[in-house]
Amino acid sequence: MLNVYKSNNSCSDRRMTLTVSQDVEILWQSLLDSLLSMSGDGRSLVFIDPIVLANNPQLLEIEGTENRFLLVPTSLREANKEIESLLAILEVMENEGIGRRSDKIYAIGGGVLLDVVSMACSIFRRGISVIKVPTTLLAFADAAIGIKTGVNFLGQRNRLGTYHMGYKVLLDPYLLRTLGPGLIKQGLGEIVKIAVIKSRPLFEGLEKHQAQLMNPTFYSSNDGMQILDHAIHLMLEELHDNPAEEQLMRSVDFGHTFSPLVEMESIRKPDYRALSHGYAVAYDCLLTSCLSNLRGLLSSNDFDRILRLYLDFDMDFANEIYRDDELLWASLLEMKKHRGGNQNIPVPVKLGEFSFLQDVTYEQVKNANYILQGLLRDQ
Ligand SMILES: NC(=O)c1ccc[n+]([C@@H]2O[C@H](COP(=O)([O-])OP(=O)(O)OC[C@H]3O[C@@H](n4cnc5c(N)ncnc54)[C@H](O)[C@@H]3O)[C@@H](O)[C@H]2O)c1
What we know:
Elements: E1 2-6, E2 16-20, E3 25-28, H1 31-36, E4 44-48, H2 50-55, H3 58-65, E5 69-73, H4 83-95, E6 104-109, H5 111-123, E7 130-134, H6 137-143, E8 151-153, E9 156-160, E10 167-171, H7 181-198, H8 200-208, H9 222-241, H10 259-268, H11 277-294, H12 300-311, H13 325-338, E11 345-350, E12 353-357, H14 362-378
Bound molecules: nicotinamide-adenine-dinucleotide.
Nicotinamide-adenine-dinucleotide binds at residues 49, 51-52, 55, 77-78, 81, 109-113, 115, 135-136, 138-139, 142-143, 146, 148, 158, 175-176, 178-179, 183, 186.
């Protein structure tokens, strides 16, 4: 819906208001069904991760029988989440003459592919719509849902990007069945995070199914789909109130206070094992929960449950980089700059409930980290 209000015709008051609102459709549907049910005379241009394509050869058969359907295997990784890849995608769109409203663009893959193809769609001909089909757990629970697009630039993650409202999300958990343990843990890092900070029922669901969470086929079962659906709803709640992240006190920043510099430095410095994003976020969630416990906000019983859930996943918590208290502190100072000069550290105060800390000291971080390191060593 687009409403334009013109206040009046007087020259002295030229103020106008523009209100834009749009619903985003998110559906659970089989990808094959969606592709086969294409109607009208439009074509579909399908940017797809080559690994996902190799694991789902049925898609090639559809392409063989349907000439309105063009598969474009697109290998996008964090290392080439760059403007050159964006331009290459735009070039395919141009060469294929995409533009008619009846044409469809699919982006099928992990968060990187979804971010880059969505960005291309947001700027091609001033914006065309995209159907995002996530194939990693992280993309299911996070990257596919929101309105952010982006590519890395001059060494900065997602430095160039847009907010693109023109999308649908198609959730087909069958695509997740080929995920290896590393990718599952990455996604679980985000799902556990949102459960701890926003939802006791989701947290309890994760505890209940703890033994199955590493099994990729679990996510096609009713229980697995319920967990994903719940996590997605929590993410939507957050986006609904703050889609462009103008509000700087965000519960979903849980896990993103101490982790950014730690993650970056672990990749940059050869002395350490490189940490993936989800692992660094998980350690941050534990450290922040420990801080909350030490300040008497989170009970020891709840803290212990959070610790037990994370410990099941072997997320490289023994990485030496976590001993660097000064690095953890530097990350907090850096984040403060992005949070309007405030610490705004979301911490759990009960399972599923949060508060913000504004006055954490270096000594408190050091002490919490010392205690956490001890707890992790004793396991
Ligand atoms: N736009 C947003 O709101 C948002 C939110 C969170 C994260 N992100 C972005 O998401 C990216 C991370 O996404 P990711 O974790 O999905 O990683 P990714 O996109 O790099 O994919 C990781 C790997 O998974 C493989 N893969 C994908 N689907 C598979 C499947 N079904 N089976 C087996 N292998 C499969 C891919 O080939 C790739 O090698 C980051 O760039 C981050 O910035 C964006």
